[in-house]
Structure formats: C-alpha cells, structure tokens
C-alpha cells in the first residue's frame, strides 16, 4: 500500500500571534514551528498502517525551505521519503492543486492529512483534492482501519459519530483519537538525515481566495470577580449586565 | 439570480446554524442586489419545517426529497447541491460551517470553480472587490481574504449574524436530484448520536467541566446546570483523554471550537489550547478554586471557589431566577 501524508508547517499552539509590515505578514519572531497537530495524528496512523501492510509512506508539504526541518521530523517519525512543493501555501485551492498533481503522479492508495491546519483553519484541502482526483473524501476521521481494499472509518459529527465503509483509493482529514502522536527516537532521527527529501516546483500558480490583511481581536477587559458566597450576584450580572441569559 | 444556501437537517429538523446561514445570505443579497435567497434541503423533511425556513430570510426552498439523502453521504450531497446551484444560476453559495458542511463545501469549490472562504465572521465588503473577513489561528486573529472568482462559497461561523425571524413562509418546491451509483460509493453503516440534548457546536450556552471535577461521577451538577440553562455540556482535553466524557464534548485547539453566547468553565485552568476552542464566546464565566488560574485572564466574570461548593449554590440561584 502506498500512503501519502500531507503535513502543514505551522506555529506551535502556544505561539503569540502577531503581525508585521502594516498587518500584512505573520510575525514569526520567536515562533517555534511544528507539524500541524492534526497532521501529526494522520502521520502516526499512517506509520502504523505502513508497518502493518509493509507499504511505502511519503510525506508532502507545500512550503518554502524553512519547512525542511518539519519534513525531516516527519521522516524521523517514520515516513520513508519526503516531497516539498517549493512555494508558500497561498490558499486552499493552490495547495489542493499541488497535492492532487503529485498524488496522481505517485498513484497513492491512501492520502491522509489533518482535518485542518491550525493557522488558517480552513479544513477544505482534503475535500478539494478528493474532488480534483475524483475519489471519495472524508473528514474529520477519528478511526481508520484498512482491510485489503476496504476501509472502515469513524467520522465525527455534531454530538456523535458515524461509521463508514469505503474502498481505496480515498482521502481522509484526520483528528484524534485516530492514533497516538509518535515521538521520534534516536534511530529515527539518525536515519531521517539520509532519507530522500525531494524539492519540486508548483504545477500551477492559480489562487482563488488569498489573505491580504490581518488583525487581532480587541483586547479583553479585566475579569469581574463575584464572591463565592454571593452567587446570586453572578446570575443578576449575567442577566442584567451581560444580557446573556 | 439568487443566492443559494445549503441547509442541513438532523432528524427532520433544520439546524439552527443553517438558519443563521439563510439570514446571512438574506443580508448579503440585500447588499449586493443578488436577488432573493433560495435554500436547498436534502432528504426527508416535512413541508412545514421547510416553509419555516422563510422566517430566517429564504424566499424559496428547493427540496431534494430522496430518502437516500437522509444520511449525509458527502459526495451525494455535493452533487445534489451543485445541481441546485446550476439550476437557479446562482453565483454565491452560503452554508454553515459543520462536519458535513465543510466536507461538502470543499468538493463544491472544485465542482463550481468557486473561491471558498471558511470561518466567515461578517458580511463581505463588496464595494469594489470582494473582501471576506475570516477567523484564523483558531480564533486568535482575523484575515481579510480577497475572492477573485465569479462563483463564491462562504462557509460561515456561528454567530456571524443575528438570526432573522420575521420573514414570510418560504415557497417549497421539490426538485429531482440526478444521483449516480458513484455518489454512494461509500456507505454510512451506523450512526451514534446523543439524542434529545443540545448539540455542542450549535449551543447558545455551554457548561464545561475540567479535571478540577476529579472524576466522571461528579458530572451530575454540570449536567444539572446545563439542564436548567438549556445548555450543552463540554469538557477540557484531559477529561476526554481520561475518557471521563466522550470525545465529541472536548472543546479546544484539537477539539470542538464553540462560539456560544455564554460559556461557563468549571474546574478548568485555561491552558492556551483550551482557550483556542472558546475564544469566540461572547461571555465567559470561570469558576476555579485557584485565583491564579490563567482562565480568569480570558474571563468576563469569575468566582474563586471550590466547584463542589459553588456549583450547587449557583444551580439553585439559576433556578430561582429563570
């Protein structure tokens, strides 16, 4: 089985979000970059499936050279090879076109990625790639088992989940608890240095909805504390001041 | 020309978030002069329920009534919505962000060659260009996005607009959806859904518990508060990791993102990853015995005190007042 896992290179979840250049660029000063947490779940499940089926696991990122350490980390976690499409990820459609092209070229049976990136939170790339390739797409997938060409999945829905059955090839946007995150061990880190990381050029420059300007939400006022022996006061405030009851 | 809205149902009832999408489209149509609002509904739903979509601002509902569409089979729904879109010659599709909505919208973006913006928080600026404001970095910032395509899809975030409730009943028409076997290549074999409760992503009030509650056996008072307030229950990540509560209740960076009017956090310290899931709430109340809990910095109102002491008293106070 050939598996492709698409990963994002995103600011750590504890990063302070700030912008520069008149609010047109993300300020990466002091920001630690990571594999997107949802992508990390997808990668962990892909490593397990690859080991079960003795297949091949490729990771792909659409990003500039600063993504390379993130791809090396994915190789250390267990991917066999990496592809970097050499361009900033301009919008969902731009990224989906690149993935669809290289996924088709590599004839993968299973394509996994996170349910969404944690920077732009669109959650749309997997569905777009599915439609571009004419294969089924599912998200957010919290369980995924492969038996021959049959795939059994659980997809989270509002207030519960649905169980699904489909056939390979397919694409899934993943989330917990599909697998436990894997931490690279020393052997993984050493072998990652010599695994192939191929840099390829984007196949299209077309975009549809690029972000042009950013802003931060207004600062929150100070908390109003209510004495624990006077809880009725809180109810009055919620009703008459905040008007949320 | 009309704006199309894809509305979702659960057990024959139109979702409230879908009605918000209708109201959003209604205001957008008034702004851009795109005619009226047509909603497309799929699967088995009563005519009265569909006509009531008019209250939120739809002039017409196109009903693809095939029972095969009761289940949210992603490809089949995408295909049906594309047919409705082309039938009425729409240029804009509006829908509520949801588990099914997102999956369907992404495929439609390709089918309709439409620029897609997700997590839309307010009406677009359409005077010279088409600029849409969306929430990014899990609610920690906003981006202005310029859409350059003729066809557009807007997936709106909860509370992007006030629900309109004074419209006239919509005219309901059935339309024949041409479905292919390929649309049903995947099968939903079963569904597990909490019934009768308020669904978390759609709730106006959310009562959430953390590890401070010490164990699943102590959730009775949380559930009681939710019942009094007509709220949904939620929890922090450690609580769902420990399996004290189901995963679909986990609110945070890697869980559900909520945007209720009121979020009440009990025994949750307020790690940055949890705040990412709740920072779009209008009003946040924090109950925690640690006065230094970081959550107080993100809260509107707070009580420093032991949950086991405060919550039962607060439940009585809510009961007395409501």
TrEMBL record, chain A:
Ranges where the Electron transfer flavoprotein alpha/beta-subunit N-terminal domain occurs: 23-209
Q: Respond yes or no to whether keyword Secreted is given for this record.
A: no
Mind listing the UniProt keywords for this protein, alphabetically? Electron transport, Transport
Which residue stretches, if any, does this entry annotate as coiled coil?
none
Name the InterPro entries for this protein.
ETF_a/b_N (IPR014730), ETF_b (IPR012255), ETF_beta_N (IPR033948), Rossmann-like_a/b/a_fold (IPR014729)
Q: Which Gene3D superfamilies match?
A: HUPs
Keyword Ribosomal protein part of the UniProt annotation? no
- Record Pfam families: ETF (PF01012)
**Family stated for the protein in its record:** Belongs to the ETF beta-subunit/FixA family.
From the Swiss-Prot or TrEMBL record, give the protein name: Electron transfer flavoprotein subunit beta
* Biological classification of the source: Bacteria, Pseudomonadati, Bacteroidota, Cytophagia, Cytophagales
Automatic annotation (TrEMBL), chain B:
What is the superkingdom listed in this entry's lineage?
A: Bacteria
Ligase in keyword set: no
* Keywords on record: Electron transport, Transport
Q: Tell me the ranges covered by the Electron transfer flavoprotein alpha/beta-subunit N-terminal domain, including all copies.
A: 3-188
Instruction: Cite a single Pfam family from the UniProt record.
Output: ETF
Q: Which InterPro entries match?
A: DHS-like_NAD/FAD-binding_dom (IPR029035), ETF_a/b_N (IPR014730), ETF_a/FixB (IPR001308), ETF_asu_C (IPR014731), Rossmann-like_a/b/a_fold (IPR014729)
Q: Which family does it belong to?
A: Belongs to the ETF alpha-subunit/FixB family.
Q: Which protein, by its recorded name, is this? A: Electron transfer flavoprotein alpha subunit apoprotein
């Amino acid at each position: 089985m050939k598996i492709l896992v698409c990963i994002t290179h995103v600011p750590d979840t504890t990063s302070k979000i700030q912008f520069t250049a008149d609010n047109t660029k993300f300020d990466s000063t002091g920001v630690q970059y990571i594999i997107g947490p949802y992508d990390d779940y997808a990668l962990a499940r892909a490593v397990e499936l690859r080991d079960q089926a003795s297949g091949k696991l490729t990771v792909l990122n659409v990003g500039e050279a600063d993504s390379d350490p993130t791809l090396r980390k994915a190789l250390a976690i267990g991917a066999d090879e990496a592809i970097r499409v050499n361009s900033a990820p301009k919008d969902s459609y731009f990224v989906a076109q690149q993935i669809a092209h290289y996924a088709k070229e590599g004839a993968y049976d299973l394509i996994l990625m996170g349910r969404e990136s944690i920077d732009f939170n669109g959650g749309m790339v997997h569905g777009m790639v599915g439609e571009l390739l004419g294969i089924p797409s599912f998200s957010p997938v919290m369980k995924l088992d492969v038996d021959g060409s049959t795939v059994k999945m659980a997809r989270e829905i509002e207030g519960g989940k649905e169980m699904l059955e489909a056939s390979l090839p397919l694409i899934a946007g993943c989330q917990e608890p599909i697998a436990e995150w894997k931490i690279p061990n020393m052997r993984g880190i050493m072998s990652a240095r010599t695994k192939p990381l191929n840099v390829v050029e984007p196949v299209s420059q077309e975009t549809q909805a690029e972000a042009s300007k950013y802003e931060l939400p207004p600062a929150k006022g100070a908390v109003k504390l209510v004495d624990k022996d006077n809880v009725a006061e809180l109810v009055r405030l919620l009703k008459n001041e905040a008007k949320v009851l | 020309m009309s704006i199309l809205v894809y509305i979702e149902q659960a057990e024959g009832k139109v979702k409230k978030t879908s009605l918000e999408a209708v109201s959003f489209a209604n205001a957008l149509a008034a702004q851009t002069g795109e005619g009226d609002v047509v909603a497309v509904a799929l699967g088995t739903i009563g005519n009265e329920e569909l006509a009531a979509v008019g209250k939120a601002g739809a002039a017409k509902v196109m009903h693809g009534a095939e029972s095969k569409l009761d289940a949210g089979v992603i490809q089949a729904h995408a295909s049906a919505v594309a047919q409705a879109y082309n039938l009425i010659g729409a240029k804009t599709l509006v829908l509520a962000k949801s588990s099914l909505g997102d999956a369907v919208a992404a495929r439609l973006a390709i089918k309709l060659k439409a620029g897609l913006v997700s997590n839309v928080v307010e009406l677009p600026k359409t005077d010279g260009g088409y600029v849409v404001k969306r929430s990014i970095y899990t609610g920690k910032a906003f981006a202005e996005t310029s859409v350059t395509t003729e066809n557009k899809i807007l997936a709106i975030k909860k509370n992007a607009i006030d629900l309109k409730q004074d419209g006239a009943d919509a005219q309901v028409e059935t339309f024949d959806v041409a479905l292919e076997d390929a649309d049903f290549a995947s099968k939903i074999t079963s569904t597990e859904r909490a019934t009768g409760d308020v669904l978390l992503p759609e709730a106006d009030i959310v009562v959430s518990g953390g590890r401070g509650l010490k164990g699943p056996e102590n959730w009775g008072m949380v559930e009681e508060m939710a019942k009094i307030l007509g709220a949904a229950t939620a929890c922090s990540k450690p609580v769902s990791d420990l399996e004290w509560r189901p995963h679909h209740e986990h609110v945070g960076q890697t869980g559900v993102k909520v945007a209720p009017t009121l979020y009440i956090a009990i025994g949750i310290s307020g790690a940055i990853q949890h705040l990412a899931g709740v920072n779009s709430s209008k009003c946040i109340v924090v109950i925690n015995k640690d006065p230094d809990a970081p959550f107080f910095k993100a809260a509107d109102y707070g009580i420093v005190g032991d949950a086991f002491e405060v919550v039962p008293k607060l439940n009585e106070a809510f009961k007395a007042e409501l």
